[in-house]
């Protein structure tokens, strides 16, 4: 199991910001010996999951992951509908709309349509943010099993008063079904999010409309809420039919 964990932890080093690694620098970054890093990367290459750049000799994600990505997209039959829904939310609200899914202790953006206005919020597909910061993460964290949610909060938040405040926010969120954050993760950014739940009550994803705080007034947020609630109802109905 430790060998598998090592291989998976090395894989997590490959990100949009850092898509290419040399053996030595990856060893220094991870604290894992160069020989082990070399062996793991060679195995990934043999399986088609990575490739070695012929010029730089650095390792990059290979075409093999496209196969698994396509399997995931086929399994996630809501993908097209979510994309259309997010686009519709952006068009009707005039702001950026996005869908995020839980990924460990983070929320990962899986669908995104940017606002057509000159100033937009900085978010991109694949971006991961902590579950306890911002509306999109909180809309997911609130519906995780109690033990899992408390463990994440305990690890991420050291202030007992802050932990209590988060639990109160989650209690309110589970009652009203939506949450707003203002300047919580990034200054001068406001987002409003709703959870997407499976028929079992488990969290599936979150839907968010976000924009610069000077545009996201109380009235604008209030106008966005019914858009999100309607989208939530449609997607959850479709999701229940696919389970």
Question: What report would you give on this structure?
Answer:
It is a single chain. This protein folds into 2 domains: 2-67, Arc Repressor Mutant, subunit A (Orthogonal Bundle); 76-242, GAF domain (Beta-Lactamase, 2-Layer Sandwich), CATH 3.30.450. It is 49% helix and 21% strand. It has 9 helices and 9 strands. It has helices at residues 2-11, 23-30, 34-46, 64-75, 79-93, 135-141, 146-156, 160-176, 218-242, and strands at 20-21, 50-52, 59-61, 96-103, 106-113, 128-130, 179-182, 189-197, 203-212. Helix 2 crosses helix 3 and helix 5 (79-93) packs antiparallel against helix 9 (218-242). The longest helix is centred in the C-terminal third of the chain and has 25 residues, at 218-242. The radius of gyration is 20 Å and the shape is globular.
Features:
single chain; 243 residues; alpha+beta; Arc Repressor Mutant, subunit A; Beta-Lactamase; 2 domains; 6-stranded antiparallel sheet; 3-stranded antiparallel sheet; 9 helices; transcription regulation
């Amino acid at each position: 199991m430790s060998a598998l964990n090592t291989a998976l932890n090395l894989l997590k080093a490959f990100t949009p910001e850092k898509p290419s690694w040399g053996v030595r620098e990856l060893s220094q970054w991870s604290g894992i010996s160069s020989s082990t890093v070399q062996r793991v990367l060679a195995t990934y290459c043999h399986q088609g999951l990575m490739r070695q750049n012929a010029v730089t000799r650095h390792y990059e994600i290979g075409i093999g992951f496209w196969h698994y990505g396509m399997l995931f997209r086929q399994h996630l039959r809501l993908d097209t509908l979510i994309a259309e829904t997010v686009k519709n939310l952006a068009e009707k609200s005039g702001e950026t709309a996005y869908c995020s899914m839980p990924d460990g202790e983070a929320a990962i953006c899986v669908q995104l349509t940017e606002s057509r206005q000159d100033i937009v919020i900085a978010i991109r597909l694949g971006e991961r943010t902590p579950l306890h910061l911002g509306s999109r993460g909180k809309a997911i964290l609130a519906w995780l099993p109690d033990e899992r949610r408390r463990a994440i909060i305990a690890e991420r938040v050291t202030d007992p008063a802050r932990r209590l405040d988060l639990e109160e926010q989650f209690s309110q969120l589970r009652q009203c079904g939506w949450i707003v954050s203002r300047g919580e993760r990034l200054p001068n950014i406001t987002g409003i999010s709703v959870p997407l739940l499976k028929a079992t009550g488990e969290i599936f994803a979150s839907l968010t409309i976000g924009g610069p705080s000077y545009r996201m007034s109380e009235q604008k947020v209030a106008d966005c809420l019914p858009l999100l609630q309607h989208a939530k109802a449609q997607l959850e109905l479709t999701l229940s039919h696919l389970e």
